[in-house]
Amino acid sequence: MQNRLDEIRDGLLQKLQEAKDGQQVEQLRVAVLGRKGELTAIMRTMGSLKPEERPAFGQKVNQLRQRLEEALDNKAQEIREREKEQRLKDETLDVSIPGLRPELGVEHPITATMNKIVKTFVGLGFSVVEGPEIELDHFNFELMNLPKNHPARDAQDTLYFSENILLRTHTSPVQARTMLSQRPPIRIICPGRVYRADEVDATHSPVFSQCEGLVVDEGVTMADLKGTLASFATAMYGEGVKVRFRPSFFPFTEPSAEVDVSCAACKGKGCPTCKGTGWIEVLGAGMVNPHVLEMCGIDPNRYTGFAFGIGIERVAILKYNIPDMRLLYENDARFLQQFGKGR
């Protein structure tokens, strides 16, 4: 019986030396000291011994159990310490190593242009007003002097939800809503997205951005409009840029004008960008039609006003010399990264 105890001890100690992790140590514990372990099985054979031999044998078994448990605990602790040291070594961070520089995004040229325009007009005393993109026909057309069946509606290529609900074709409805809710003096800009059923090409998109402006007060003249737009052109294209007005027609302004600026690429000398003319069209403007004022409850005999509409994409294309409007919507990082530092 003693020989068997020695075999169990030597076998366990030998296997403990070879154990690599805590799981192997636990398996040895169960195999020797568990309910069905080797040492437990020896204890069950004590019934075959003489009564006077049992106490001495039981003492030997208990002593061996204590020794083996101590050996198992020591080995388990040794493995835990070794694993901890390895884990700390693996997780060591050298703070002197330069980190990875995060790749920062840049402001999209449309956003940058919109922000620049808003900042310019806010600096001139304008307030920013926004309105719904899903609009009523009444605000989008009728209050802009475009009644039902007016031929000028055809040029808008409108996207309708129903006869009276549509995606706004310009931000002018915000002007109408403002004039209905606010008495003069009014000095606002209305930036936002607009929608038209245009085919996508180098100069058109069904979704684009506008920033319209409106001033209504006593004594407002065309000279005020020209001075305001000259300040805008200088802020966007730099000192020395020239502005000219060409007669045009818009139902909600009278008189109306197309506004050109001298070509920034050639300084007005003529180049492919301006098709040799030295001028590039940037927006439409004019004096608010008295009938529009009247429909919005403003006395046209007392008040006058001017309005203008700026195409954000058109300004961005000219400012950054972008050859194709579609580049603004393709989200190509290689293209957008050009508009980072220094812009």
Report on the structure:
The mean pLDDT is 86. It contains 11 helices and 10 strands. The protein folds into 2 domains: 2-90; 109-339, 2-Layer Sandwich (BirA Bifunctional Protein, domain 2). The radius of gyration is 42 Å and the shape is rod-shaped. Helices cover 40% and strands 20% of the residues. The termini are far apart. By secondary structure, it is of the alpha+beta class. The longest helix is centred in the first third of the chain and has 37 residues, at 54-90. The strands form 2 sheets. A 7-stranded mixed sheet has the order 1-5-6-10-9-8-7, with helices on both faces. Strand 3 and strand 4 (165-167) form a beta hairpin.
Topology:
Layout: H1 2-18, H2 22-33, H3 38-43, H4 54-90, H5 109-123, E1 127-128, E2 134-136, H6 137-140, E3 159-160, E4 165-167, H7 172-181, E5 186-195, E6 207-217, H8 222-237, E7 243-250, E8 253-262, E9 279-288, H9 290-295, E10 304-311, H10 312-320, H11 333-336
Parallel strand pairs: 1-5
Antiparallel strand pairs: 2-4, 3-4, 5-6, 6-10, 7-8, 8-9, 9-10
Helix pairs in contact: 1-2, 1-4, 2-4, 5-8, 5-10
What separation lies between the terminal Cα atoms?
92 Å
Name of the CATH architecture of the largest domain: 2-Layer Sandwich
- Please state roughly what percent of the residues sit in beta strands, choosing from under 5%, 5-15%, 15-25%, 25-35%, 35-45% or over 45%: 15-25%
Radius of gyration: 42 Å
Low-confidence stretches: none
Tally of strands: 10
Q: What's the number of structural domains?
A: 2
Mean pLDDT: 86
* CATH structural fold name of the largest domain: BirA Bifunctional Protein, domain 2
What is the helix fraction of residues, given as a range?
A: 25-40%
Describe the largest sheet: 7 strands, mixed
Number of helices: 11
Q: Report the CATH C-level class of the largest domain.
A: Alpha Beta
Q: Structural class given helices, strands, pairing?
A: alpha+beta
Q: What's the order of the H and E elements?
A: HHHHHEEHEEHEEHEEEHEHH
